[in-house]
């Protein structure tokens, strides 16, 4: 059994640990693929890409019957076995339907502010998904994606260990996300992280991230219907899956939920022998219109305060998250592509990667709160794109149209576009685009017809790339003298827009 040893780790917080790789490893074909391969960032990305599955499973995992927590020795089918190394990473484990990324980012920001003041934690790791602009966003240390050099070095250390001849004959390869998770754990251990915030991929009980046996604290954000093919069909089923991250002795926190899923969470907490606390929006949060202008962010922020506070108390009863830590954490909060604004000349851009009904409702409210607060109404443009085999784009667009109408923030001009970023066809090597089977022009035509039915007075157009959609909006701004543009519907769209608006 191969291993990656951390016995030389200079950080005294961690005892000697070993990353064991007993469940999946690499076949002879994958092993030969890396023979004599140069250790470059691009080659690491190419090897990682070979582990991407064509599509997610369509059959739901069981959500009733016997509780079956994931044994660390064999984990879920296809997930590498990890021994005591992960247990010593001081993990905050977060799941939910909407707000996971923001909650993780708030938690990181609070712990960072506390660390600056007290000296602990000094280094904070964050594992999250998906990425908007580059794959390294998924593995961050101290508020920055790891460098290309670190990504390359640690990727090949993991890859070559898994591809060792004594591994290749008896075991199978980890998939794309499982390999990224291994890379994140390996990176955090080698870099001496004091606290690691880990966001689930989706689900919880059968998520690869649930190899974490001893988190310091766990958290659940708002629940809703998403990934129903794997987790559904009801929100109670989804609550069962999400609460799979609860562990004995690790305090659990959840934002307030509807009665049905709340009951499921309480039952699961009792089964897992942990205390569950429901968190409402705090009425003592400082005023910050940039960060807390939308109610859901106040809720995510309140949950993060509880997670950070419980983490510090668990590590040292004398550690207390102060009001100054909270204030500075909020002031320094940032989360790429979520409730993000960019000012450019006379144009104001509002970007949110919402891609399910719940998140689109919240994004529409946030946009309306901002544009309706301006003294002089400006011309409004909506740029929308969503192409997925898992979600109904027509349903999402319908949700968005009704939400914008209800909040009196309907656009004057709607631009539908694709996930293709640049007009010349160039792409970034560390951003992979999954193109759906349904042709883009057909879907854009469907979206255009649908919007004209909703709001006949709106001007509707389509553009073949994100770059051309941005350019079209800028031309409109020039013609109208000013513009407020709302970019939403997909993380692919928002990531591409950000790379153009703020390279």
From TrEMBL:
It is found in: Cytoplasm; Mitochondrion inner membrane; Mitochondrion matrix. Its EC number is 6.3.2.17. Pathway: Cofactor biosynthesis; tetrahydrofolylpolyglutamate biosynthesis. ATP binds at residues 338, 352. The keyword Disulfide bond does not apply. A monovalent cation. It catalyses: (6S)-5,6,7,8-tetrahydrofolyl-(gamma-L-Glu)(n) + L-glutamate + ATP = (6S)-5,6,7,8-tetrahydrofolyl-(gamma-L-Glu)(n+1) + ADP + phosphate + H(+). GO terms for molecular function: ATP binding; metal ion binding; tetrahydrofolylpolyglutamate synthase activity. Keywords: ATP-binding, Cytoplasm, Ligase, Magnesium, Membrane, Metal-binding, Mitochondrion, Mitochondrion inner membrane, Nucleotide-binding, One-carbon metabolism. GO terms for cellular component: cytosol; mitochondrial inner membrane; mitochondrial matrix. Coiled coil: none annotated. SUPFAM superfamilies: MurD-like peptide ligases, catalytic domain, MurD-like peptide ligases, peptide-binding domain. Its main location: cytoplasm. It is an enzyme of class 6 (ligase). InterPro entries: Folylpolyglutamate_synth (IPR001645), Folylpolyglutamate_synth_euk (IPR023600), Mur-like_cat_sf (IPR036565), Mur_ligase_C_dom_sf (IPR036615). Belongs to the folylpolyglutamate synthase family. Catalyzes conversion of folates to polyglutamate derivatives allowing concentration of folate compounds in the cell and the intracellular retention of these cofactors, which are important substrates for most of the folate-dependent enzymes that are involved in one-carbon transfer reactions involved in purine, pyrimidine and amino acid synthesis. This is Folylpolyglutamate synthase.
């Amino acid at each position: 059994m191969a291993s990656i040893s951390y016995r030389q780790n200079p950080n005294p917080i961690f005892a000697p640990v070993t990353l064991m790789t007993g469940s999946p490893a690499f076949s002879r074909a994958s092993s030969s693929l890396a023979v004599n391969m140069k250790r470059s960032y691009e080659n690491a990305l190419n090897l990682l890409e070979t582990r991407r599955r064509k599509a997610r499973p369509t059959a739901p995992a069981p959500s009733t019957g016997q509780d079956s927590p994931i044994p660390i020795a064999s984990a879920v089918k296809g997930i590498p076995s990890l021994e005591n190394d992960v247990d010593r990473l001081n993990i905050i484990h977060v799941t939910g339907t909407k707000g996971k990324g923001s909650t993780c980012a708030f938690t990181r920001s609070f712990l960072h502010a506390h660390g600056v003041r007290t000296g602990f934690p000094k280094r904070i790791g964050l594992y999250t998904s998906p990425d908007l602009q580059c794959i390294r966003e998924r593995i961050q240390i101290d508020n920055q994606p790891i460098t290309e050099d670190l990504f390359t070095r640690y990727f090949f250390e993991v890859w070559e260990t898994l591809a060792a001849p004594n591994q290749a004959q008896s075991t199978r390869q980890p998939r794309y996300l499982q390999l990224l998770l291994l890379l994140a754990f390996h990176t955090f251990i080698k870099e001496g992280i004091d606290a690691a915030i880990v966001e689930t991929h989706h689900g919880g009980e059968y998520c690869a991230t649930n190899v974490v046996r001893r988190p310091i604290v766990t958290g659940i954000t708002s629940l809703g219907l998403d990934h129903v093919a794997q987790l559904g069909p009801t929100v109670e089923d989804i609550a069962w899956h999400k609460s799979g991250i609860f562990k004995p002795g690790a305090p659990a926190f959840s934002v307030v939920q509807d009665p049905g899923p709340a009951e499921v969470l309480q039952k699961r907490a009792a089964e897992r022998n942990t205390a569950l606390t429901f968190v409402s929006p705090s009425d003592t949060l400082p005023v910050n219109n940039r960060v807390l202008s939308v109610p859901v962010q106040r809720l995510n922020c309140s949950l993060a305060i509880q997670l950070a506070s419980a983490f510090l108390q668990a590590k040292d009863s004398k550690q207390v998250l102060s009001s100054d830590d909270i204030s500075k954490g909020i002031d320094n909060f940032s989360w790429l592509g979520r409730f993000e604004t960019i000012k450019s000349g006379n144009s104001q851009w509002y970007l949110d990667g919402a891609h399910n009904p719940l998140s689109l409702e919240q994004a529409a409210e946030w946009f309306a709160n901002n544009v309706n607060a301006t003294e002089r109404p400006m011309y409004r443009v909506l740029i929308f794109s969503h192409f997925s085999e898992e979600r109904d784009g027509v349903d999402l667009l319908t949700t968005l149209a009704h939400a914008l109408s209800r909040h009196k923030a309907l656009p004057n001009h709607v631009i539908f576009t694709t996930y293709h970023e640049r007009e010349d066809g160039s792409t970034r090597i560390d951003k992979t685009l999954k193109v759906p089977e349904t042709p883009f022009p057909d879907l854009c035509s469907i979206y255009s017809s649908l919007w004209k039915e909703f709001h006949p007075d709106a001007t509707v157009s389509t553009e073949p790339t994100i770059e051309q959609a941005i350019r079209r909006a800028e031309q409109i701004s020039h013609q109208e003298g000013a513009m407020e543009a709302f970019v939403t519907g997909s993380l692919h769209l928002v990531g591409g827009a950000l790379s153009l608006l703020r390279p």
